[in-house]
Design brief:
It holds the Pfam family dTDP_sugar_isom. This protein has about 190 residues and is mainly beta. Helix content is about 5%, strand content about 40%. It has a single domain, classed as Jelly Rolls, CATH 2.60.120. β1 (about 1-5) and β2 (about 10-15) form a beta hairpin.
Length: about 190
């Protein structure tokens, strides 16, 4: 796998090595050993999958400590714009984001460490999205920030009138009003 560093330390793009021939292709989507050597040690404990239609925007979500989650995400059908926002107060990149188009054709994955909010918008007619998490879903720790917070400056690449949100995501606070954000330097990265 090839690791591409982004403008925010810890958030990386994982580009798999594809082997193509007349039959199609093969690639290793995850190797714990190689990921640990090239990115960092991680122990994924839960895999999730969602299917969404064009215009669906899921996010920006995170889980508060002690149930914070790192995620390794990918789109296996269609295309999404995937976004990670630094919500670690005191971080030199607090409030900044990384946005990457993940598609069934480019096979890219995005690693989002703990201390970040995560969301994605579906750019294709339909998308199937998979993600690995290093902690279990904990409804009591579920939180989020507003997808359209102007201070974040995220271009979701979908006209606002075509965005489809859950009721919960419609009511999320702006980052400046959020209470569940992390402190920079706090030990939320590994268990």
């Amino acid at each position: 796998m090839n690791i591409i560093r982004t403008s925010i330390e810890g958030v990386v793009i994982v580009e798999p090595r594809l082997f193509r021939d007349a039959r199609g292709y093969f690639f290793e989507s995850f190797s714990q050993r190689e990921f640990g050597e090239k990115v960092r040690a991680v122990n994924f404990v839960q895999d999730n999958e969602s299917r969404s239609t064009c215009g669906v925007l899921r996010g920006l979500h995170f889980q508060r400590p002690p149930h914070a989650q790192s995620k390794l995400v990918r789109c296996v059908r269609g295309a999404v714009l995937d976004v990670a926002v630094d919500i670690r107060r005191g971080s030199p990149t607090y409030g900044r984001h990384v946005a990457v188009e993940l598609t069934e054709d480019n096979h890219l994955q995005l690693f989002i460490p703990r201390g970040f909010a995560h969301g994605f918008a579906v750019l294709s007619e339909e998308a199937v999205f998979q993600y690995k998490c290093d902690d279990y879903y904990a409804p009591e720790a579920e939180d989020g920030i507003a997808w359209d917070d102007p201070s974040l400056g995220i271009d979701w690449r979908i006209p606002e009138e075509k965005i489809i949100l859950s009721e919960k995501d419609r009511r999320r606070p702006r980052l400046s009003d959020a209470e569940g954000v992390f402190e920079y330097g706090a030990d939320v990265c590994l268990r």
